[in-house]
Specification:
The protein has about 280 residues and is of the alpha/beta class. The chain is built from 10 helices and 9 strands.
């Protein structure tokens, strides 16, 4: 039987900054252990059936499939979320949206809407930090609503609820103190859509028209009908889209319009308040 160290050294993955880490995560998952186990016990022998699972995982990764889809889970904020190919994989970049939203309102009871919730990542992160907030997450994909609900139940976050809706379509007459969204914002012609992990993610969660702003335009135009007075709209967008999104917010009647920078210095979140 091969040892942990031998299997990791023999792993054949495409050259990438995360190749070694990917192999460690996949072997740890096959063993049912934390990745730290591999470094603690590199000489432990691996059972043939475990090696076979690892080999199958590695082959899927060599074909480009994201590790999150292979394992069926992804960490976000302080949570571990179930993921599936019909939802976008939660990314650390989106934590800026969560941080920004939490600064806008008190921890006392308020109503929050998460548009295009996917796995429920944003809604559940907010719910975990603000137990008094009442958070609704909506998604047009039935399977995503089911998945987000399952994540909420597993995490015991009862201050969330998930509904099927294409943006505001099923929310007539409902208003909130805060609306957040990580909508599709990639232009249809972007060459990155043919590269890396995004090849396996649903295009409906990524692409939004020729300039990537079609869904953001719709959200900005319709959000005033669903915000309470002085309510906030907070949007994630592409690294170079902040000026355009700020303009949409200003033209749409929002005030206190601003953008927030991520750790790389890029303006990735923009927000505005309804007068």
């Amino acid at each position: 039987m091969a040892t942990i160290d031998i299997l990791l050294r023999a792993a054949q993955l495409p050259d990438s900054p995360s190749a070694k880490l990917d192999a460690e995560w996949l072997l740890a998952a096959a063993l049912g252990k934390a990745p730290s186990y591999l470094r603690t016990w590199p000489d432990r022998e691996v059972l043939p059936e475990v090696e076979a699972v690892f080999a199958a995982h590695m082959e899927r990764r060599r074909q480009g499939e994201p590790v999150a889809y292979i394992l069926g889970r992804q960490g976000f904020w302080s949570l571990e979320l179930e993921v599936a190919p019909h939802t976008l994989i939660p990314r650390p970049d989106t934590e800026l949206l969560v941080e920004t939203a939490m600064k806008l309102l008190p921890a006392s009871p308020v109503s929050v809407l998460d548009l295009g919730t996917g796995t429920g990542a944003i809604a559940l992160a907010l719910a975990s930090e603000r137990p008094a907030w009442r958070i609704i997450g909506v998604d047009r994909v039935t399977e995503a609503v089911t998945l987000a609900t399952r994540n909420a139940q597993r995490l015991g976050l009862g201050n969330t609820r998930f509904l099927e809706s294409h943006w505001f379509a099923s929310l007539a007459g409902q208003r909130y103190e805060l609306i957040v969204s990580n909508p599709p914002y990639i232009p249809a012609s972007d060459p990155h859509l043919l590269q890396g992990d995004v090849r396996f993610e649903p295009s409906s969660a990524l692409v939004s028209g020729a300039d990537g702003l079609d869904d953001i335009r719709l959200i900005v135009a319709q959000a005033p009908d669903h915000l309470l007075p002085s309510g906030w709209l907070v949007l994630e967008h592409g690294y170079d889209q902040a000026p355009a999104v700020r303009n949409l917010l200003t033209v749409g009647g929002f005030v206190d319009v601003a953008s927030c920078r991520d750790f790389g210095g890029h303006e990735r979140v923009s927000l505005g308040r309804l007068p």
